[in-house]
Amino acid sequence: MRLTVAQLARRIGAELVAKAGDAERPISSVGPVETAGADEVTFLADERHKASLAESGAGAVIVGGCIEGVERPQLVVKNVNSALIDALKIFAPKLKPPSEGVDSTARIGRDVKLGKGVAVEANVAIADGVEIGENTVIGSGCKIGENSIIGANCRLDCNVVVYHNCRLGSNVIIQANTTIGSTGFGYSFINGSHRLIPHDGGVVIEDFVEIGANCCVDRAKFGNTIIGAGTKIDNLVQIAHNVVIGKCCLIAALAGVSGSCRLGDGVVLGGQVGLADNIEIGAGTMIGAQAGVMTSVGSGRQLAWTPAIERKEALRIVGLSLRLPKMAEQLKQLGKRLDRLEAAEDHKE
Q1: For residue 195, what pLDDT is reported?
Q2: How many CB atoms are located within 10 Å of the residue 64 CB?
Q3: Whether 241 is catalytic
Q4: How many Cα atoms occupy the beta-carbon half-sphere of 236 within 13 Å?
Q5: Which of 90, 123, 153 marks a domain boundary?
Q6: pLDDT tens figures, 71-83
Q7: Nearest alpha-carbon partner for 262 in 297, 310, 302, 222
Q8: Among 26-30, 70-74, 152-156, 245-249, whose mean pLDDT is lowest?
Q9: Helices (H), the chain
Q10: How far apart are the first and last CA of the chain?
Q11: Average pLDDT rounded to a whole number, residues 95-117
Q12: Residue 329's pLDDT is what?
């Protein structure tokens, strides 16, 4: 894809601020402000990168407001991040679209219902009683268990496994090698050995959920593990049995949510956050990377550290920790001074 600056401005709904002739500059991709070239458009999402813009070689820049003294064309928009998403979609590589229909190597069970426009790629296995909504793409190597239901306009990338009796809403994206509906990690120690507790429930993934690669969402013991509409989950995340996640949550890579936890709407978990089992995280709470949360937390909190505490208190502890080497040296010197003073007093006596 190759557009002039003026054409790009129209495509993303921007007001173009440019000198005569600059509107016809060719743009073929998007690049970061530090390295963008003359045929790339860059963006300025916050003031911290404003200084870098003066040194940038970009052919044009997407901004939230016109910046004085900038010589290159400016595409002025209300929301820079929204316009950036549009620009990235415009210049994305044009890949071959999946072919509607069922590949000859796929295995389809009995009483399977496939909606209009469904694409089932190579080496897919779909068990009995599965329903798949229109325009959904099932990537190569996927396996869909008995009586599971997948909504419309979904995309399951290569080697995704959806176990039996799971339900996915519409517009769900699941990236490669993720497993939905595996047995939860629940055991009882009986007569000298760990016995697996049956997990006969299911998994419900609501509309517009996106799940990254190599994630695991365990099925419930009874009832359902639920991921609310609009929630986005990064790669390498573990969601245990009977967890209920609210709407529009964000969960970063390597987070682990233990069994029967409940997350309110809009909760954010940073990378490597761990939640103890059977706790509740209130709506809108944000938990910083590597925090360990051991007890329930109310709504609208900001936590960090392990065990998790208020963010401001955690920052104060970190600041004090960084000063410990200097404080230890000062304490050592004070000890020496005290020894000298005590020796002088002993000498007077």
Answers
A1: 97
A2: 17
A3: yes
A4: 7
A5: 90
A6: 899 999 999 999 9
A7: 297
A8: 70-74
A9: 5-12, 50-55, 80-90, 311-322, 324-348
A10: 93
A11: 96
A12: 93
Same domain, 285 and 157: yes
d(CA 219, CA 127): 18
pLDDT at 236 over 80: yes
Shared domain for 21 and 55, answered yes or no, is yes
Other beta carbons less than 10 A from residue 80's beta carbon: 20
CA-nearest of 123, 93, 122, 126 to 108 is 126
Structural domain harbouring 23:
3-90
pTM (2 d.p.): 0.90
- Total count of domains within the chain: 3
Please name the residues in contact with 125: beta carbons below 8 A apart, sequence gap of 6 or more: 106, 107, 142, 143, 144
Q: Of the residues 194, 199, 241, 347, which is catalytic?
A: 241
Residue type, 57: G
Report whether pLDDT(196) > 90: yes
Q: Does one domain contain both 207 and 302?
A: yes
d(CA 163, CA 183): 9
